[in-house]
Amino acid sequence: MAIIFLVLGSVQLAASLIFYQSIDRQTLREDHARRVAELLVVSDRVHALTPARTSPIMSTRHLTAEVASRPSVRTLPTDDTLKGIASKIVEWEPSLSNRSLRLAAATTPAGEKDLIGSIRLTDGNWLNFRSEDFTSMWPVALRATALTFATAVACLTVGLVVLHLMAQPLRRIADAAEAIGQGRYVSINERGSRDLRELAHAMNVMQERIARLLQDQAKTFEAISHDLRTPLSRQKVAAELIDDEELAGMILASVDEMEALLASLQKFLRAQHLSASPEKVELVPFLRDVVAEFGEKVEFAAGSEPAVRTFREPLALAVLALVENAIQFGDKARLSLQRNDGGWEIAVEDDGPGIPPDYFDAILDPFFRMDEARQRDTKGFGLGIPTAHRLMMRFNGGLSFARSAAGGLIARLSVPAA
Hints:
Distance between the termini: 33 Å
Order of helices and strands: HHEHEEEHHHEHEEHEEHEE
Number of helices: 9
Structural class: alpha+beta
Strand content: 15-25%
Number of strands: 11
Oligomer: single chain
């Protein structure tokens, strides 16, 4: 729209300038014709009264005149412009129609063109005259051109500003739609034209419905989790009463696995609707506190101690999920803090079997497992990385993957900048 607006404005401006130039050429021709006609008539009368003073009286700053026995221009005009000026002279002063009027153009050292001419006086002498720079822009046309140009620029500027203001609600809604797609809640101002207000209202209603669905989902899970814990506790008690230790161990292992699954699901669902406010965080002590529970299983290296304004709890949960994933599929996790693209990046590397790059997108899906790299008897339910990914999407962070030199997986987490 802005390009079309600029093109139309430029076409209008160019057409106006061409129009004024056309008017300027016509005005120049008539102006020089009028000045020369007046000069010739007045000069003829002055010469009849005081021949010696004809030249000084008739010469001005822009036009010089002198009386001579020979003409300075010896031929009649052949150029169309000069012919037009000659005909206009006769129109202004019909009494000059019987005089021998000769016109020509002379180029000055400065590149300007002067109008020179000769006309026979009544006593047989010649009046030679020179009008300076007869091709220069007519002052009125110059002012009109400048005014047109200034008006066009002002109209284009105002139009582009109005267009920018009109597009602001659309950009706001587009940004809100992107944020909603990442799981965030954005309150959209319902203002602007009727269509924009209706669109904003529909998006706000949609967000409310999504929020209610997530809340209902969380409440349903909480209810199911609460109800499942009672029979699980009973199974634990029953397992302790079984004399067969192998059978009792299998039951207790199944109960523990069920409880771990419930805990993982709870973390994953919490990542969907967790809310947090930005605050200043010292990253190095913050990360040390997050991984303190893992002890020597985590190696942490940081070259500097930055402080950023970010979301503390979502960042802690995401780092915790990635570290748990790294320890689960390897003996140790290596944690490092690096500068990246104006922000900070937390890298979590494990020494496990790793994941082929073709599966980097698939591991973001909940419950994804890959038998070739991670056996079915390994712990975990495929919810750690998806939980971290959901948190980063909702709080404007990032998560990417790479293979380490040792073959393990490197998860790079971009710290959300609030």
